[in-house]
Write a structure and sequence with these properties.
heterodimer, A: alpha+beta, 3 helices, 24% strand, B: mainly alpha, two-stranded antiparallel sheet, rod-shaped
Amino acid sequence: MAISVDPPDVSEHLRQEQGYTFTFLSDPNTEVIRRYDLLHKAGGPKEHDISRPAEFLVDRSGTVRWENFTEDIRVRPRAEQMLAAARAIQW
Amino acid sequence: MKCVCTRATLLHFMPGPNQKRTNSALWLGLLITVLGPLSNFLYYSKIPAAVLPWLNLAIPAIGLLLVLIGVVRASRQSQLYRGKILGSIFTVLAALLFAGSAWLFIHVRDVPRSAGAPQTGQRVPDFTLPDSTNQTVSLAQLFSAAPGMAQPKALLLVFYRGYW
């Protein structure tokens, strides 16, 4: 599941273009992004507030089992890395 | 065969004003510096991403260093190497490319610390947001089974910068 400040139609365009099958959620008011303390103030174009990149693996109880916060926005975990992290955990 | 070392043959081995060597350090240096910005495309490769920021910075630094070596050569051994004028032009270009790479290196690291973000072992806050088809979805709903599918054991939440 992916979350950003992008409005639903932008996310839907990206989803269809890339053929993604997972859910995209829109948080244009950075309400949830703020609640997760992931706000990057003026980090977007035209000084817009955006989310910093972050990934969380959450179990059914809502508990974080693995997380990743990059220090460099160019460095993101690859799908294989996140799948490996998920496989390494006893669910 | 006997070698007759005339003045002409000697001159051949003594670099004259038009027979200076190409200052290869200058050209190689500029080429490497140009590869610096291009090395940002390596994020699409299989190279471990964690080493790439340093590589993106090291490549133009090495290039600039080579250009400077070329400049020193051209000024100290001006009878041997070309590139006095070219050297100053290349220095400016290489310095600008390096400065751009250094600025990018700092800028992309301008990420908030997010000390209050959920950590391993902590519960994440529940939330409700519209999905890409404008349907309201809650975190709890995402954990419920989709038709014909088993209930997911886990969920991967990916927060990204957006503006795609």
